[in-house]
Every structure is written in C-alpha cells, then in structure tokens.
Amino acid sequence: MSAVAETTHHLQPLISDLGLILITAGIAVLIFKKLKQPLVLGYLVAGFLAGNNFDFFPSIRVTKSVEVWAEIGVIFLLFSLGLEFSFKKLMKVGGAASINAITQIVSMVILGYFVGQWLGWKRMDCIFLGVILSISSTTIILKTFDELGLKTQKFVGIVIGSLIVQDIVAILMMVLLSTVAVSQQFSGTELFQSVLKLVFFLTIWFVAGIFFIPTLLKKAKHLLTDEMLLIVSLALCLLMVLFAANVGFSPALGAFIMGSIIAETTQAEHIEHLVKPVKDLFGAVFFVSVGMLIDPEMLMKYGFPVAILTLVVILGQSLSATIGALFSGQPLKQSIQTGMSLSQIGEFSFIIATLG
Predict the structure, then answer these.
(1) How far is CA 193 from the centre of its chain?
(2) What is the DSSP letter of 152?
(3) Using DSSP, how many helices (H) and how many strands (E) does the chain show?
C-alpha cells in the first residue's frame, strides 16, 4: 500500500504540472487564434502565467520535469524539420547557407563584444555576450514558418541551412569558450578533437542517409502498420539523439539529422504526418517552458541593458543576415526575408549563457 502511495506522491506534481501547462496553453491558443496573433506568443504568455514569477495564478511546482518535456519538444520539432529537408535539399543550399551563417556569426560576435565593453562588462563576459547574440532560434523560426505557411518559399531553404551551420559552429564555439573560460588560454588540441568528431559524425550521417536506413525501411515496408512506423521512426530519432549526445553534440542536431535521413525514404511524407501530433504536443510544452523564464523583477532591475541588447539583436541579426545572404548571391528580396527571419537568439544561447 505504501508503495502505491509513494508512486502517487511522485506522480501527482508531474501530472498536475503537465495538466496546468496544457490548460493554460489551450486557453492562450484559443484567445490568440481569435485575436489573429502568433500561437508562439500565446504559449509564451501561458508560460509566464503558469510560472513561479506570476503569483495570481496556480503555479508549476516541479520545474525540472517541465525542462525535460521541453527538451523532448525541441527534439521532436527538429526531427519533423529534418523530415522536410532531405540531404539533397541541404546540399543544394549548403554554400549560400554557410556564407550567410558565417557572416552573421562573425558580425554578431564582434558587435556583441563591443556592446559589452560599452556597458562596462569584463572582457570574458563580453566574449560570451558576443557568442550568445550570434545564434538564432531554430525552434521559433520553424514554428513561425509553419503557422504562416511559408515552408515552400525559396528563402526558407537558405534560412534552414544557415541554422544548421550556426548549430555546428555553436558547438565548436562552446568547446573553445569552455576551455578559454576555465584555463584562460586557447586549447588547439580540444578544438581539433572537436572538428574530428564532427567529421566522423557527418560521415556516419552521410553513409546512413544514403545506404542503410532507406534500404531498411524499404525492406520492412510490408510489415509496418501506422503504429509500427511511428514507433520505428521515433526509435531511430532517439537513437541518433543518443549518439549525438555521446559524441558531444546537441541532441537536437542528432534529431534533425535522423529526420533528414528518413526524408530520403519513400515513406517520409507519411512518417511526417504520423509524427505531427507528437511534435505539436511537446512543442507547446517547450514554448510554455520558455515563457516560464520571464521574470518581471529582473526585467525592471536590468531594464537599460535589456533594452539595448534587444535592439542590438533585432537590428544586428537582421542586417548581418541580409548582408550575408547578399554576399552568397541571393536577390535583394530573398536576402531581406532571410535577414528578418534570423533576427532573434536561440536555445543554444541559453546553453552558452549557462556555460558562462
């Protein structure tokens, strides 16, 4: 009897917190849909209301479990994105996306560093600030493209390619920053090991993408019902997530890679349709969890630097990404669309800030 009571005790906050998240998200979505506003904004407001920084509403009790669900949300969002961007599509936009991403990152790191100096921050803090401001949010962009029905537009391929290059560069910058911050000196060996790991990881991606998984799914096609197909595809996604995490990369990058491998198969469209409800559920939890981080007291206390950095992010990211797209040979209209799409900072920025 005591074992049952103990299980109920552990289960209760977990279930009640998830219930509260989904109820507030549901109400916010209905209101924001009626007001013709982006759903992401609704989720963020719902997160703020359900978070511990707002006292006039029932609050989340165990934030740790919400963080776990949020991470699952990012994994499924990136897996779904991968299903729409096959390896061939990415190769097509690879050059332009790399030029765009590197122009944007270099510009924002330099701009962030000088803004930090102007605000009177320490040298190491300024370097971290520059890196934090240089990475855009894959999740926010995807959700917005999805809502606005823009995924077929030409510039979207460049944006997605840029985000992948940014994620890869962010991983290398994290290695550099962690060694520089701890030892106050640059470690070339660690960076070299990181690059080797990356090459190894991308080779596995290429081999699995071209040969192994498409053949496996083709051979097992007659055995797979919808339920089996969903389970197999999610299992493959989580397998690649584990592999990426163990090699030292972002789990979300692993999920995206598995999505783009499955995109090469004949069942890609069907799998995408099956995964959508799972992605929507956990994606909502992710955006609500970001809303929970909003602390009005902090915003009031650091109002001036927050306002300055917000302007730097919006203007700096827009301009640098637009210039990067123009350098890569894109027409002006597509370059401006790319710049506007990339004008925010992402999940990687939270990780780098925590590292700092």
Answers:
(1) 24
(2) T
(3) 16, 0
**Rounded CA separation 148/215 (Å):** 35
pLDDT the model gives residue 1: 47
State yes or no: pLDDT of 175 exceeds 70: no
182, 172, 103, 130: CA torsion to nearest 10? -20
Q: Is residue 249 within 8 Å of 196, Cβ to Cβ? A: no
d(CA 118, CA 116) in angstroms, rounded, equals 5
Q: What is the mean pLDDT of residues 8-37?
A: 79
Q: Which helix (H) or strand (E) holds 280?
A: helix 268-291
List C-alpha distances in Å: 61 to 16, 21, 22, 44, 65. Answer: 9, 11, 15, 18, 9
Selection from 195, 278, 196 nearest residue 238 by Cα: 278
Contacts (Cβ under 8 Å, ≥6 apart) of 71: 251, 286
In a 3-state reduction of DSSP, which class is residue 314? helix
CB burial of residue 41 (10 Å; 0-12, 13-18, 19+): middle
The structure tokens listed for 10 are 């552990």
pLDDT, tens digit, 9 for 90 and up, residues 102-136: 888 899 989 999 999 998 888 888 888 888 888 88
Q: How far is CA 301 from CA 48, 120, 297, 349, in A?
A: 18, 17, 6, 21
Counting every residue, how long is the chain? 356
Lowest mean pLDDT among 60-69, 76-85, 96-105: 60-69
> How far apart, in whole angstroms, are the C-alpha atoms of residue 338 and residue 156?
7
Query: Which residue, 307, 331, 335, 290, is CA-closest to 140?
Result: 290
C-alpha 321/C-alpha 315 separation (Å) is 10
